[in-house]
């Protein structure tokens, strides 16, 4: 079984377990293959001070985040899964 398949199968089970921690204001979401910006650079500004930031994104194997009404969310934990034979370990 590939790492991606293993994580993909883990997401719904972990999501069900973490639902117990939801509150009226915050829900916990679990996903796989999410892309998070890890850097944001502004190379230049135009004469009016406007800019176009450039973001580099990193794909996580597993992401746990807090979600709020209105669609806002905050990433809390992301993991990269690595396998060695049949042993699977998650690194933070």
Topology:
Blueprint: H1 3-18, E1 27-31, E2 35-41, E3 54-59, E4 62-67, E5 73-84, E6 87-91
Antiparallel strand pairs: 1-4, 2-3, 4-5, 5-6
Description:
The structure is a single chain. The protein is an alpha+beta fold and 92 residues long. The chain has a domain of 64 residues. Helix content is 17%, strand content 45%. It contains one helix and six strands; from the N terminus they run αββββββ. Strands 1-4-5-6 form a four-stranded antiparallel beta sheet, with helices on one face. A two-stranded antiparallel ribbon has the order 2-3. The radius of gyration is 17 Å and the shape is flat. The chain starts with a helix and ends with a strand.
Keywords:
17% helix, 1 helix, 92 residues, 6 strands, alpha+beta, four-stranded antiparallel β-sheet, disordered C terminus
Approximate helicity band: 10-25%
Structural class by secondary-structure content: alpha+beta
Which radius of gyration do the C-alpha atoms yield?
17 Å
Give the H and E element order: HEEEEEE
Q: Tally the beta strands.
A: 6
Cα separation of the termini:
21 Å
Discrete helix count: 1
User: What order do the strands of the largest sheet run in, or round the barrel if closed?
Assistant: 1-4-5-6
């Amino acid at each position: 079984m590939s790492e991606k398949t293993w994580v993909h199968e883990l997401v719904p089970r972990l999501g069900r377990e973490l639902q117990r921690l939801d509150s009226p204001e915050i829900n916990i979401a679990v996903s796989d293959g999410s892309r998070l910006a890890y850097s944001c650079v502004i190379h230049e500004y135009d004469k009016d001070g406007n800019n176009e930031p450039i973001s580099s994104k990193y794909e996580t194997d597993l992401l746990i985040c807090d979600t709020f009404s209105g669609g806002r969310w905050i990433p809390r934990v992301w993991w990269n899964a690595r396998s060695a034979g049949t042993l699977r370990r998650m690194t933070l």
